[in-house]
Write a structure and sequence with these properties.
The protein has about 350 residues and is an all-alpha fold. Helices cover about 75% and strands about 0% of the residues. The longest helix is centred in the middle third of the chain and has 30 residues, at about 105-135. The protein is globular.
């Protein structure tokens, strides 16, 4: 890990403390007992196989987006556009998966749909990388701009060309493009949304980590994160490395479609996956930008999302949403403070 990334990673104990503090304060303000609500939350997420499966299902897209943010951060690039890259990946997977012949076997359909999602997200991320490398446009500005453009484009597509009659979703993908469901393999998970995308996400996170450490192109991206001087001293083409880092990051974000389109819904619709891109920033920082850490941080946020449904009878769902937002801000603030401290030394 480059010095910049290590410095900008908040301590796990601080992040966990922030979660508990925010949760207790939010619940207390709602007029309920924090201890009682926390007990219900744990029982509803960890106290049953269904709760565990649902928490894992909600964590799955966050592993994808957390890995995407972490990959860009290794190159000292802040990919705020993961939200838009996830959205275009969902759209591409749905359109391509529905356009395949009905009898397409899974060995062809799944890789094709995944490739479409990765290419769409990678193209959007690569465009932001190109603007940074060639035009000097900061990636935060360009990715936010692209997020807005994607939001407008997808709204028009879902309401117009891709709308199927009175349905609010696109045409369903072919049967061969659907990923295996955990409930079909194990009865204890029956009825949950957990699917094989979780395995793919964890494998991709470890694969990206291996690529950055073992492949020459990955080492070039890490050198870029160590600073332009270090990259140039190693003979790294900083422009190419910038584009490659953002494209790879965007591809990981686009592959979150594997959970939503190929795993859960079988189609795409407006708003599907909303919020997972921005939450992925907190997941990447909280997880220390390492595969195991990202998986655990994603599980924490997934458990909070599932817990919001479990305790909804006692406290408003907005309490858990507020807690998640506060944790994101706290993690971001801790990371920014660490980075400023490092740069001042």
């Amino acid at each position: 890990t480059c010095a910049c990334c290590a410095a900008s990673t908040p301590k796990p104990a601080s992040a966990v403390a922030a979660v508990l503090l925010c949760l207790n304060v939010a619940v207390w303000l709602s007029g309920e007992s924090p201890a009682r609500v926390l007990s219900l939350l744990l029982a509803g997420t960890l106290g049953s196989s269904y709760g565990v499966a649902q928490a894992l299902a909600k964590a799955t897209p966050l592993v994808w987006t957390g890995a995407a943010v972490a990959f860009a951060l290794r190159a000292r690039l802040f990919n705020i556009g993961v939200e838009g890259q996830c959205a275009v990946g969902i759209l591409a997977a749905a359109v391509v998966g529905a356009a395949l012949p009905a009898a397409t076997p899974w060995v062809v359909a799944v890789p094709v749909a995944l490739a479409a999602a990765a290419l769409a997200g990678g193209a959007l991320g690569g465009a932001a990388g190109w603007m940074r490398a060639r035009l000097g446009t900061h990636e935060v500005i360009s990715t936010l701009m692209l997020n807005g453009l994607v939001a407008v484009l997808t709204t028009w597509l879902y309401a117009g060309p891709l709308r199927v009659g009175a349905q609010v979703h696109t045409r369903p993908v072919v049967a061969g493009a659907r990923l295996p469901q955990a409930g079909a393999a194990m009865d204890v998970f029956r009825g949950s949304s957990l699917n094989a995308s979780l395995v793919l996400a964890v494998a991709a996170a470890f694969g990206a980590h291996w690529y950055l450490r073992e492949r020459r192109e990955g080492v070039a991206i890490r050198a870029l994160g160590a600073g332009p001087g270090a990259a140039e001293a190693l003979g790294v083409d900083t422009r190419a490395a910038t584009v490659r880092a953002m494209a790879f990051s965007g591809a990981l974000a686009g592959l979150a479609a594997s959970h939503y389109v190929l795993g859960v819904k079988g189609s795409a619709e407006q708003g599907l996956g909303a919020g997972v891109g921005f939450t992925g920033i907190a997941v990447a920082l909280l997880g220390g930008m390492r595969p195991v850490g990202i998986a655990l941080a994603a599980l924490l946020f997934g458990a909070m999302a599932q817990g919001a449904l479990v305790v909804n009878a006692r406290v408003p769902a907005d309490v858990l949403t507020l807690t998640q937002a506060a944790v994101i801000v706290a993690v971001g603030a801790l990371g920014a403070a660490s980075l400023r401290h490092k740069e001042s030394q």
